[in-house]
Each structure stands twice: as C-alpha cells, then as structure tokens.
Amino acid sequence: MDIELITNILYATIRTGTPLLLVALGEIICEKSGVLNLGQEGMMLLGAVAGFIAMYHSDSFLIGFGAAALTGVLISLAFAFIALHLNASQVAAGLALTILATGLSAFIGADYEGKTVTALPALTIDGLAAIPVIGKALFAQDAIVYLSWVLVILAYLFFKHHRAGLAVRAVGENPSVASNLGLPVMSIRYLAVMFGGALAGIAGAYLSLAYTPLWTENMTAGRGWIALALVVFASWRVERVMLGAYLFGFASIMHLVAQGLGLSVDGNLLAMMPYLATLAVLFILSRDPQKQRLFEPMSLAKPWHKGH
Amino acid sequence: MIRLEARVQHSTVWGYSSPLLAVLLTLLTGYILFAALGQSPSEALYTFFIAPIADWYGISELLVKTIPILLCAYGLALCFRASVWNIGAEGQLLMGGVAASAVATLFVHSDSIWAMPLTLLAGIAGGIGWAALAAFMKLRLNTNEILVTIMMNYIALNILLWAVHGPLKDPDGFNFPESALFGDSTLLPVLFADTRLHLGLVFCAIAMALSWLFISKSFLGFQTQVLGQDPSAAKMAGFNQTKLVTLVLLVCGALAGLAGAGEVAGPIGQLVPQISPGYGYAAIIVAFLGRLHPVGITLAGLLMGLIYMGGEMAQIELGLPNAITGIFQGLMLFFLLSCDVLIRYRVRFKRFDKSNSADNTSSSLAPQAQE
C-alpha cells in the first residue's frame, strides 16, 4: 500500500465514522438520562430527507442542516410523549418511531429520489493539511466533522465537570431520588431526547448533504442501529464512542482497503462488514455482564412517574 | 382539564378496545392526510381500504399478502410473550427464501414429488438456522437480542443479494439478478382456480391453531408466559429459561422461514432481491395490534395485508407514493401504544375550579399519574 492510499483511507474513515459519531453521541446523552430511544435509524432518515429537501430548495447548508436538526427534534418529541408521558414501553415506542419515520421519509422524499445537490465543501486548513498521512484526515474535512469533534469535547466536559451533566446522570441512575432532590426529571429527560433527535437529524443530513449528496430511500442502511451498538461498545463514555465510530468507519470502507491490497471480494459480502463488525463487538463486550452493568445507567428504559 | 389516574387493576375492556381505537385514529389521520394532499378523503380511503377487496380476486390477493405476515406474527407473538425482543423475523424470512431457493433451483427440470416438500423444509431450516444463531448469541454470549437480530436482518439481506447476483443467478437470465424460474413440481399448489391463493393459507391456519393451543393449553406455553412477565418467578419455579427462550426463537424462525419459502415457491416463483416488502417488520406491529393472541393477530394481519394492497392501489389510482403504506403502519403502532395508556390509567375530566386553580393548573395540564 502506498502513502496516498493510507492517507485516503484515514480521510474516508473519519468521514464514514462522522454520522455514526453524531448519532451515538446524541443517544449517549439520551441514555444517560435513563431513556432508551431505539428510533435513531428513523430519525436519521427523516433528517436526511428533510435536510436534502431544504438544501435542494434553499441552496443553503445552514438551512439544510437546520431543517434536519429541527425535524429530528420534532419527531423525537412524539417518541418522548408516548414513552415519558403515556408510559409506553420505551423499546416499543422506539420501534414505532423508527417504523413511522422510515415511512414518512420515503413518502416525503418520493419526488426527490435520486436527485443530487452540491456537496458540503471541505474547510481545508492550508499548511496543516499538507502534513503527510494524517493531514488530509484531520485538517481537510468539512464543517460537520469539526463540529462533531467540538461536540465530543463539550459532551465530555459536560458530564465530567458541569452540574447539569451531573443532573442528567442522576436522573438516569435514580429518577426518584433525583426528583426528591428537586431536579425536574421529566424536563431533563425531554431535553435529552430532543438533543438526541437533533444530532440524529444532523447525522442523517450529513449523509444526504455531504457523504453522498443525494437522497435515496433507506439510505442510512442501518447506521442508526449500529450507533446504538456503539453506545454499548463505548460503555456510555463519549471519548470511547469516538474511537468506536472511527473503527466502524474503517470497517465500512473495507472495499478501499481490499482494493489497496489487491484483493477482489464480492461487493455484497463486503457490504456485510459493518454489521458483522457490530455483532463481533457485541460479543466481545457482552462476555462480562457484570462489568457491563457497572456503566449502564441504572434506570435505563424503565418507565418512571412522579410519585412512585 | 384532563388528568390520568392509575387504575388499581388493568382494564380488560380497554385491552380489547385500544387496538380498535388505534385503528380508528389511524383512519382519521389518513382522512386528514389525504385531504392535505389534495385528494377527496372519502374517495381516497375507499380506494385504499375498500376497492382492493371489492371482488373475490381482491380478497384472494389479500389473503396472499397476509400469509407471510401472519406466519411471522404468530412466531413473534410467542417471543414477545416470553419477553424476547426478536426483531429478526424479516431476516429469518429472507434466509428461508434463500435456503428454499437453493433447493428449488436443483429441481427446475425435475418432476419429483419431493421437490415442493424439500423446498419448504429447506426454507424452514433456513429460518431456524438464522434464529438459532440469534438464540445462541442471546443465551451463550449474552448479547442484546434487539441489536443482534437487527444486524442479522441486514446480513440476511446482503446474503440474499449475494445469492441472486452470484451462486443462484439464472445463467440464462440475461444477467438479471434473479434465480431461474422454479419448476412446476416445486411450486405450491394453488387452492382456487384463477387466483394466486396457495397452500400457505393452510399452513397459516395450522400455525394459528397450534399457537393458540400452545399459549392457552400447554404447560410450556404457561411457562413461557410466566418467564415473560416475571423472570424471577420463573426462575424460582425452576423453569428452564434457556430451553424456553430457544424454543420460542426457533419456532419463530421456522414460521418465518416457511413464510419466505412460501413466497418464493408461491406467488413469486423464483428468488428475486425484493421477496419481502418488510413483512417481518410489519409482523411486529401485527403481533402488538393483535394483543399477542392468535385470533387478534389474524384480524390485525388481514388489516396489515389490506394496508399493503391499499398502498399499491393508491399508487396506481391516485398517483401517491407507495411509501404511504409505511406511514399507516407506523401511525398504527404509535396510536396503539398511546391508546394502551387507557388500560393502566383512567382519564378524569376535572372542572376548572376557581378556588384551587392556582396550584392546579401546572400539575393537571400534564397527564401525570399519581399513584
């Protein structure tokens, strides 16, 4: 393998991992508050189509990504209402969200199927981008990649050093105690779900506006589900989710690697790689259930109401 | 002012009524949706829900669509009763279709009486194999079955695509990604002349009867139920959890695999990339809507089949995207989960009282349960 290929693999790894990183980050914050939202795949799809349509008509990336984030927030509110207010099973409500949002995205996007927009341009930092091997991957990416790094740092600081982060964790560990301490459990959980929705929307739009600037039905191809596995992989820690997302980005671009090594493997078999990698990761992590439980928010997916 | 009050006992009446209310709300939303799309809502609803089954052929087609959904849903209901979140019926169906096709293509020019039974058995084996992997990962490797089964759905789809582009591709097929047309000896017999209604309907009836017997008459079914509702009680009673979880997953896999085999050896007659428009996912909704009971599931499955047909009809007659099917499916599950709140809570309408309005407004606006 030559240097140029390695440079390109690193660059593509980060781009491929970025949507996963964004969704998983949103889901971590959601799960830290004790809410399991299995609707990430659907919210990503809606974000992808809403962002695409907004961009198609406005030609503004700000409007495109803004529309995607807003769509993610709005649809996540529907989930929050039935899961938090009506006390439905969070698992069932999340599945319902994905089924509804997948249908909605295909319906709204039917007229835009296969159309294209200009891709989100790279913000190259001259000089640094010229560093061999890593320069292109780190300093020639687009704004959303940089945004994802900023968000990881902010989320890290939020949970480690900020009162609000502590409040989210308290609500996720024991909502009754948190409530007795005067924390607004419901509001915190609503905000966490909405934040997850916004990030899933942006992640979807990253696919339709930057990664492959076009809309096709079901274009997320399970990335929302993979992100849910990533949260387990990262054991609910933001710094580890970054590592996981890029590992998966790497697994998804195996065809580039195979090409570089001169291998010819069937495309459909290579397309399985990210899913097989997810399964492998799940095995490895689940071998020690005790350790797993140590990091999982105690009240995750458990319905709660004031006065219990 | 509306507020929710927890019931002492779950309401049986709402257990039955909430699916009906969910369907009504879905129809109402459909009415509004069609109006918003500039269609005449009543005409559109007629096109969607009545026109497809206006004649005998339409009804037979409805049954053809419903067969795979029901086969998957009966199996899923067993899993959900045991609190095993199997989302993998879709993948099990696809693997059943692939395995059945692998056998069926061996019999293209044969008139052996074994062709059809072996094809079906291969389909069942394919579904069981795929479900067994999920069971192994859940029980031995302790992985979350939701994520595992969803990943396996995507893997199964890729295996199907690989098969139709590779080993099972018809060499005389002008390079189309599809298998050879199955021989007549492989195809499931049609039950009524001039329809596509096939033997799968009989399998469906048997599956319904057996799953009803299992749930309401067998000790194993009782154990499954206990395991689902209270795992620690099941453990105390000495029920074998591994055995029960494996059993429900394998039964579901077998039924879903049969559904896949029934599609390729039935109405489709060959392996193509699109053997399922998401039947395995639709079956999840059907299982819930049917209250995990075989009779309820059968009714819900017919409704789901109708939604699939209505979607196609709306595309042809009204020029609406076929994806409207997905919206109706999602809405129905959403409304069902919302209406189910009535099983556990009582809705109280409180008159706005001046004396305590100050401290009442904030709490009574939000329908919170006070237990």
TrEMBL record, chain A:
Highest taxon above the source species: Bacteria
Alphabetized Pfam families for the sequence: BPD_transp_2 (PF02653)
Membrane topology value: Multi-pass membrane protein
GO MF entries: transmembrane transporter activity
Keyword Lyase attributed: no
TM region(s), chain numbering: 6-26, 62-84, 91-110, 143-159, 190-209, 221-238, 245-263, 269-285
InterPro entries assigned: ABC_transp_permease
GO cellular component, one term: plasma membrane
Compartments in which it is found: Cell inner membrane
KW Transmembrane helix (keyword) present: yes
Keyword terms of this UniProt record: Cell membrane, Membrane, Transmembrane, Transmembrane helix
Protein name in UniProt: ABC transporter permease
Organism whose genome encodes this protein: Thalassotalea euphylliae
From TrEMBL, chain B:
One Pfam entry name: BPD_transp_2
Mode of membrane association: Multi-pass membrane protein
An example molecular function term from Gene Ontology annotations: transmembrane transporter activity
Principal subcellular localisation of the protein: membrane
UniProt keyword Repressor, yes or no: no
Claim: Transmembrane helix is one of the keywords in the record: yes
Recorded superkingdom: Bacteria
Gene Ontology CC, one term: plasma membrane
Subcellular location: Cell inner membrane
UniProt cross-references to InterPro entries, sorted A to Z: ABC_transp_permease
Name used for this protein in its record: ABC transporter permease
Chain segments annotated as transmembrane: 12-36, 56-80, 92-108, 114-134, 146-164, 197-215, 244-262, 268-288, 295-311, 323-343
Lineage, top ranks: Bacteria, Pseudomonadati, Pseudomonadota, Gammaproteobacteria, Alteromonadales
Record's keyword terms, sorted: Cell membrane, Membrane, Transmembrane, Transmembrane helix
